[in-house]
Give the backbone structure.
Amino acid sequence: MGAIRRLGAGLRRDWISAMVVIALIVGWEIAGHMAPRSPLRESPIVPPWEFIFGRALTGLSDYWKIEMWAPVPQLGGAQTLLGAVLALVFHSALTLFRLTVGLVLGGLAGVLLGLALSWSSRVRKLVAPSLHLARMCPLLAMIPLFQFWFGATNWAAIVFVAYGVGVIYLIGTVNAVANVPARYIENARVLGASRLRIHRSIILPAILPELFSSVFLTLGLAWSAVIGAEYIGVESGIGRMVIWSEYFSNTGRMALITLVILAYAMASFALCRKLQERVLAWTPKRPGA
Amino acid sequence: MISITNASCVFRHASGREVRALDRISSTIGDGEFVCLLGRSGHGKSTLLRSLAGLNTLTAGEIAVDGRPVKGPGIDRGMVFQEDTVFPWMTVQANVEFGLLAQGIPAAERQGVAREWLDKVGLGRFGDSWPKELSGGMRKRVAIATAFAGGAPILLMDEPFGPLDYVTRRDLQNLLIDLWRSTGRTIIFVTHDIEEALVLAERALVLRAGRIVDDIRVDLTRPRDEEERASPRGIAISKTILGHLELEQHTPGAA
Amino acid sequence: MTDIDATRDAMPVADKATAPARPSPEIWWTLGGIALFFIVWTLGHLVIGRYLPPPWQVIAAAVTHFFDSRYFVGLGLPPGGYWPHLVSTTYTALLGCAVGAVIGTLTGLGSAHSNVIHQITRPIVAILGTVPILVAAPFFLIWFGVSENSKIILVAFYSAVVLHLYALRAVEHLHPSFAESASTLGAGPWMIFHRVSLPGSVPELFGGLRAALGAAWGLAAITELLGTDRGIGRVIITTWGVQDIASMMGGLLLLALIAVIADALLMLARRAATRWMPEGAL
């Protein structure tokens, strides 16, 4: 009951937003029926909703290639809803795995390397041009390079995501350390703290809030990186499903997978926000932050 | 003339608790008066001033200027804020010209008027400077010049000298008195500082819990220097105001 | 008016004249850093071998195939070396970014001022801002063809979302008393928008522009990787196909170089546009 009432209150307040969402959904359907008829039955220019959740959904079973649980259309089996769901789950799991492992590895490597490079201000100045180049070199254009080094494998995708995320954390860490007020460090030095002790007890806690502010940025980046890696080369994952659909201009399947990716991305952002609230609860708020 | 009739303003907090910031206030302020609104923070003086400016809507009652009810900000009322509102992205000259620009006055006239007011506040040479190149006190001078140059016969000031150091504050108080005397405009000045009210005001309205609890004529002779403020009349006024401000009946334990 | 003369001496205006005439030691650190980059790269080549060609090979590839290359034509690329592709990608990134930036700035500032615009744009931005924008690339390639339009529209969509969010935040960060002050001086909504909100948002808008432009190169390149007729991404994917890693990295290096130059120019523009900002505020 409470949830319904809250929804009602939200709708009363944000009815314009709700109307916009409905207009988008209805507008897409109308566009689907108005658009010029495509010569191919499987590739309407704008696939209407009933097509997306009908033919396109069952069509996804084309991407189920294991001779178990559901028939494999590639070997002459029928297209089944079960096969479609299995294909979606299988490839989603692969993508989410690459995303998560890449994020964690990249985050850890970036922060540790950043702390190491911040050991002295001279080292920091010396690596600054390389870091600038790493940041400016367009990540998505580097996909072929990673495929060349690591092959079209799971690892290529993971390392690529980790690289993209790592560069952000590396630069974030170096900048955050440079921004730690000098008086904290001077105070600790006056009190006789060693360099390692200063790094552990002062610099690390001081840069944490700033590092957390990169979380959303890197999450969006990691999604782009993993989808991009699956677009170019890696022969599995939900991004690769988009490309398979595109080969035969199966717009309905493309739209369906796009919606699924949208749902995953929204869920991951929501999860991340929850996590951040939890973690930042004990972090002291910086003035002005 | 400003007439305030039964002005009330109720704010509702997010928690649902209602706060009565203004409680059926009535008063009139004549043309050319210098009125200080005195009170502790949270007792309605800023709300009253913002209502006069039209930045705040009353929940009941009315404020009228020369018989016309206040419905929103207007060029008949200028304001100097407590915050630093000098636009940092405009030169000092452009800041002072802003009100005239908003009124659609041609460029040549605008420049002339703005230069004149910059001279009057002692910043004649700083027209082309960026606000960041000025000290806090100088930026307050720019804000005062901007408000006066806009031409409003009524000027509302919300603790404008609050964050300044003592000497700068005294300088600006003297400047404001000079400008008031030479232009004859009405000034309504919010402060929590009794001494500032004694230096500036012709009349002090004391607010407590959203009501006007006293209306004091500050009939000291000018200049209001240390001796004048320490005269028996000055001390009497101070005591009266202080009595209104501080001596609330606080009985620990009584609900 | 005695305090005026006293404060004048303490003003930072005087600092303008004291710019150093000789190169500061900072430049040596930067040069040393660039040298370090190439040294590490060379060492990497010595360890890894042919999978990481040394810098001189990559630079040689970038130079020899820059304007005209029979080799590229042999690979099926249009005549003319890296150059026409660089121009195409740069054109795409800059135009897409500019179009998106204008749209995003207007909708962002608009939503900060009007609840109706805010409510209309919010669900759209929520969708476009969360979904990795490149999932839309195949759609654009079908709808708008394998031409520059697809790339430009993709970049424009992304830039619009970024600038929208930055503009919205910029107005939120702007103290409300600026707008109030303007309204007591007689400024109407339009004047507050264009004399207060817009100039006050400029520093943050440049931040958004920098983020959008930085991503624009990659977005343009990946659309080219997926299949368009020209662009540096096309060169990268073609040379990748024949395992010519030096030419591929050459293309990447040139693209990065353009991105660095564009970023530096943007920062120069920011400095010129925000001369009024107090030092150290950004």
Residues 87-151 of chain B form one domain. Strands of chain B lie at 2-12, 18-29, 34-38, 60-65, 68-69, 77-80, 154-158, 186-191, 203-208, 211-217. Residues 166-183 of chain B form the longest helix (18 residues). The two ends of chain B are 42 Å apart (CA to CA).
